[in-house]
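We treat protein structure as text, and this decision shapes the records that our systems exchange. We quote a single record here, exactly as it is kept in our systems:
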Amino acid sequence: MLTSIAISNFAIVESLELELKPGMTAISGETGAGKSIMVDALSLCLGGRTDAGVVRHGEKKADISATFEISAYPAVQDWLEERDLENTSESLCILRRVISKEGRSKAYINGRPCTLADLKEAGSFLVDIHGQHEHQSLLLRSAQRQQLDEYGRLTDLTRQVREEYNAWRKLKEELHAKQNRSAEQEAKVQLLSYQAEELAQLDLKANELEELENEQAFLSNIADAQYKAYAASGILRDSDEGNVCSLLHQAIQQASAIHPPTKELENALEMMNQALIQAEEASASLNHYQDTLEQDPGRLQDIEQRLSDIYDTARKHRVLPEGLIPLREEVEAELNSLSGSEESLDALKLKEEKAYQQLTTSATLLTEKRMQAKEELAQRVEEQIHGLGMPHARFYIHCDPLDQISVNGYEEIEYMIASNPGQPAQPLRKVASGGELSRISLGIQVVTAHTSVIPTLVFDEVDVGISGGTAEVVGRMLRAVGNRGQVFCVTHLAQVAAQGHQHFRVSKEVFNEATVSKVESLAETNRTQEIARLLGGIELTEQTLAHAREMLGNVQLQ
């Protein structure tokens, strides 16, 4: 529960610190005194929207903090521990919001900086605020559906249905897109299939082009090679005229006849003998090479045809011959991607069907639980509005089946009311007057508060438009809720304020030419005077004071 709140430089509040207790706390004050400032500040501390206008004039920032005792709320403790935001020394949760005059804000949980989303989520575990304009949103079918689902503890199931619906719709759209592939895509598949087949028939291998070109050059020049090899061999040894070997023999004979031989002459003779040997070996090699050369016109024709096919295909596809192999890989990969979509189409269809089955299962369960929750909620709301001056009203919750499943399930929710006997029930948005709507809204809020797992409930002037005995009933309702937890009620009605376990009065005064709002906890005497003021206005008479004492006394006897 909320144990304390500290507000600094917020609106017309300069500095305020309040220690708070369980039960029902009434908050009253004169019009314009700022009764709702405390609620507004708490709302900001829970992650509500803000702007620079909330900072007190002339100050740099507003600072708001709220301290909660959470020892009895393990869900909150677990949430904090999961995010390393727990208070290690005590079972407390301290939420803080600092807002600069430029409109920027910082958020903290237990002294650690956090995101605004974290602050809002933490606050959703701790406080539920019911505003005086709650009945306006009550006219929206979406708000009615949300309220029913929250009452029936169906929030997690509705979130599951929503997520499953969105996932199914995404699969359905993807399936539809694949099933309605455009004519342009079909034409592309046909073109790629033709190109892939042509390149597959060519079946060019790695390094094949280079090897073919080398072999073609070799076969095209065999005759010339044979002639030149023969001529070279003749020059070395086999020609009739002086050949290299014959001339070397002669040179060796002449040099061998020189006397006396010297070292230099011996070196020359050795080199000439080596040259003779190498010339004879070279001639033999050329003869052997010449014998291996054999013209093959058929092979040459095959090679030239293969090269022609390769060059023609490369020109057709506007690539260099060397780019044909990468082109084939690219074409086959793209074709497999497009053609493979036909195979994945069946898998996608099966996936979409399974997603729809799961969605319908969850949505059917949601419908069943809504049917159970709506009967109980309608009965309890009807009981409450009977006590709020509408004794003959009948309240219904209609589940209107949809033609097809939606993100919210199989039905839409509509609150129905029959205000008087003999009248048919009609949608709440069509028949309820302003006063009736305010009372029905309050009855719903009180009922949902009974089942709330949130420790602190705030009612901000929800009693607008009611008076007399109905106001006393409202006060008793809020006090009964407060008996099981903690309730804060901003009110202008004595009948409601008198029911509080505690009472705060909000007032404002001018100090140093600045308007300041202050909040004080009322003791018995001051509380009697405040109840009397609410009953009779500014002038307090003994009669109104006596009436106030009687009202407070009656509450004590309850």
Remarks:
- The first strand starts at residue 2 and ends at 10.
- The radius of gyration is 49 Å.
- The chain is about 55% helix and 20% strand.
